């Protein structure tokens, strides 16, 4: 019989990486991954741009910065070992107005402090040497920024868990989490028919992370507010105009990176994502509306404070959601040769953004410990890039607590 059971809620890339890390470190431990969906990587992990971030943006010393740097190295090695797609196509972060140049210079200093490999500043002429069809005054070039297929990576992590004797249990929507008197944690399905008793529980529930954490006794805050990110796909005849990744200079007030051009591992090029409030936790379409979710958002003071501060930006993003012409107006500044007629609507993702009661958008990763429960409360981009390093970080805490219990 196994000495202990560790359960993980969430079969996204962070949950699977964590289960894999625990199974590898503690042979003989029963590791069980629970997810309400019928497949792995059903939500954020399977609806992103596939970019492997190099660490340009993140505050030095933050969990994001530390775990992104470590995560890139681990992910690159893993993809090479498993023959998964991994292409270092490079990234340009481009300033197109004089007002953006000081912010670009600060970003470059940040990248140097985070030891982003090969990063350098380039002029407008240097931009065109790297991306002949791009425009801009200056840019930061990260030649080792890469792209991959995170759905394929997540499936490979799941296979590793099972190969180590672990179990993936799809179709298990969590309804209750109990802490019985004899110790451990009981996770009960929504219909009450399934139960897993674990010594330790790790919650990596993404879009549902605040709800599941509350079932385990965590506080209500931070809350998850869903933001839908919509993509356009560049028509094949124009896709060759973008060689790698083209990003705007980010606005420091927001954790979103802005609409950008992204080459995918299949050779296609996408524009996006934008960031509009989703009307459902898993609202991939504008017409996906959950009245209960809207009521919950409306009842949260942080949502109103956020709206008062940033309603103009929200209105601009919504216009882009409704109009391809409005969507491409900003993007065309970076590649003038690609306009509204050169793109078609593509897929969308929903980002789980943690929001504090004061209306601030949490930027860094947030992990809470509640006795035998460890809850990931905020894991936005670059969580996929950092997934194997986040898994190490969580496993350090979980297994140390198990040993000392």
Automatic annotation (TrEMBL):
EC numbers on record: 1.1.3.-
Cofactor: FAD
Key words, A-Z: FAD, Flavoprotein, Oxidoreductase
UniProt domain FAD dependent oxidoreductase: residue ranges: 6-396
Superkingdom of the organism of origin: Bacteria
GO molecular function: oxidoreductase activity
Record carries keyword Flavoprotein: yes
Main EC class the enzyme belongs to: oxidoreductase
InterPro entries the UniProt entry points to: FAD-dep_OxRdtase (IPR006076), FAD/NAD-bd_sf (IPR036188)
Similarity comment: Belongs to the L2HGDH family.
Name this protein carries in UniProt: L-2-hydroxyglutarate oxidase
């Amino acid at each position: 019989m196994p000495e202990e059971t560790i359960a993980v809620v969430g079969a996204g890339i962070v949950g699977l990486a964590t289960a894999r890390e625990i199974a590898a470190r503690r042979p003989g431990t029963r590791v069980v991954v629970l997810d309400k969906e019928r497949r792995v990587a059903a939500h954020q992990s399977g609806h992103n741009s596939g970019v492997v971030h190099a660490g340009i943006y993140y505050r030095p010393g933050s969990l994001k910065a530390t775990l992104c740097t470590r995560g890139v190295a681990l992910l690159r090695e893993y993809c090479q070992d498993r023959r998964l797609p991994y292409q270092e196509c490079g990234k340009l972060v481009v300033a197109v107005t004089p007002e953006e140049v000081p912010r670009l210079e600060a970003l470059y200093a940040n990248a140097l402090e985070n030891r982003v490999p090969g990063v350098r500043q380039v002029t407008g002429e240097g931009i065109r040497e790297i991306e002949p069809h791009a425009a801009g005054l200056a840019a930061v070039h990260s030649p080792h920024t890469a792209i991959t297929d995170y759905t394929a990576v997540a499936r490979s992590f799941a296979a590793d868990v099972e190969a180590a004797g672990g179990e993936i249990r799809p179709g298990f929507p969590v309804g209750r989490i109990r802490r019985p008197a004899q110790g451990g944690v009981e996770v009960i399905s929504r219909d009450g028919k399934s139960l897993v008793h674990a010594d330790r529980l790790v919650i990596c529930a993404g879009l549902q992370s605040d709800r599941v954490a509350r079932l385990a006794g965590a506080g209500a805050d931070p809350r998850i507010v869903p933001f839908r990110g919509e993509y356009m796909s560049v028509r094949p005849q124009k896709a060759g105009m973008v060689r790698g990744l083209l990003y705007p200079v980010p606005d420091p007030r927001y954790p979103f990176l802005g609409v950008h051009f992204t080459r995918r591992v299949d050779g296609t090029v996408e524009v996006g994502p934008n960031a509009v409030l989703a009307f459902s936790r898993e609202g991939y379409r504008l017409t996906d509306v959950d009245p209960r979710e809207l009521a919950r958002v409306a009842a949260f003071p942080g949502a109103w404070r956020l709206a008062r501060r940033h309603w103009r930006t929200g209105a601009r993003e919504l216009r882009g959601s409704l109009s391809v012409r409005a969507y491409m107006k900003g993007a065309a500044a970076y590649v003038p040769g690609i306009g509204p007629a050169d793109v078609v609507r593509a897929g969308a993702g929903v980002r789980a953004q943690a929001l504090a009661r004061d209306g601030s958008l949490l930027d860094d990763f947030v992990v809470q410990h509640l006795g035998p429960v460890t809850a990931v409360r905020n894991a936005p981009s670059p969580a996929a890039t950092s997934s194997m390093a986040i898994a190490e970080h969580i496993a350090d805490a979980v297994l140390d607590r198990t040993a000392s219990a």
